[in-house]
Design a protein that fits this description.
8 helices
């Protein structure tokens, strides 16, 4: 099996990134301990992996990567605020969070269906999320850390709302991109994928939040060492491939 240079470069970059993350976890005390940024980072990595894997399985790895990064960044920030019992943010904060996630959807959709589709889908996603925030539908709805997964009535209804909303957004985006023949199927696929992933992630949120606030310091260090070892292994792939050639 031949591995091209672009793939090797991506593997090496992933390894370097894991090394950096591992070093941050090892420096837990230096970065402020319990009140430092690593609790937020833990949320970002977890939510990014959760949404990225879900969207990646349903809509492909590029869509999963783009939307996973966007969701990890924004949800880490929002749930960190909620864990510290900060007051609800204002309109522009909500708009910024919505735009970042909408941008992730736009990039992933553009790769799958073209630039016009992606731009339309991203704009509709952003507008829909902003409207959702205004009526109280936000990621931190019914925020309550717990030791086991839980899906509340409000979270379920929010997932249903996203299913319908993104199905319509996918349909309109396909029409805008002159893809009328498959507009309905694309809309249904997008709506179901995003709705199901939202429901699953929503159910996992209480446990993720409890874990982020209760992970022992020593376990942080062990996790950091594990990330560094995996990073070194990934970076060594290019050299093993060179030897094999």
């Amino acid at each position: 099996m031949t591995i091209d240079n672009h793939t090797l470069a991506l593997v090496s970059i992933a390894g370097s990134s894991l090394d950096v993350l591992g070093a941050l976890y090892l420096a837990y005390d230096l970065l402020g301990g319990e009140h430092g940024p690593l609790r937020t980072l833990t949320r970002g990595v977890t939510y990014g992996a959760l949404f990225g894997a879900g969207y990646g399985l349903a809509l492909g790895p590029v869509f999963g990567l783009a939307s996973g990064v966007a969701h990890g960044m924004t949800l880490a920030w929002e749930f960190s605020r909620a864990s510290r019992h900060r007051p609800k943010p204002g309109f522009w904060y909500d708009t910024a969070m919505s735009a970042i996630r909408g941008g992730g959807f736009a990039l992933g959709a553009a790769y799958l269906y073209g630039g016009t589709f992606g731009a339309t889908f991203g704009v509709l996603s952003t507008v829909g999320q902003v409207l959702g925030y205004r009526v109280g539908i936000r990621p931190t709805i019914d925020y309550q850390p717990a030791t086991r997964p839980r899906l509340t009535k409000h979270q379920f209804l929010a997932a249903v709302n996203r299913t319908i909303g993104y199905a319509v957004a996918g349909y309109i985006s396909a029409l805008t991109a002159h893809q009328r023949a498959n507009a309905l199927s694309v809309g249904v696929k997008a709506g179901l994928a995003i709705g199901v992933v939202t429901a699953i992630a929503g159910a996992c949120t209480p446990f993720v939040e409890w874990t982020a606030d209760h992970v022992p310091e020593k376990r942080m260090g062990v996790f950091g060492v594990g990330l560094i070892l995996i990073g070194f292994a990934l970076q060594s792939v290019q050299y093993w491939v060179a030897l094999a050639r």
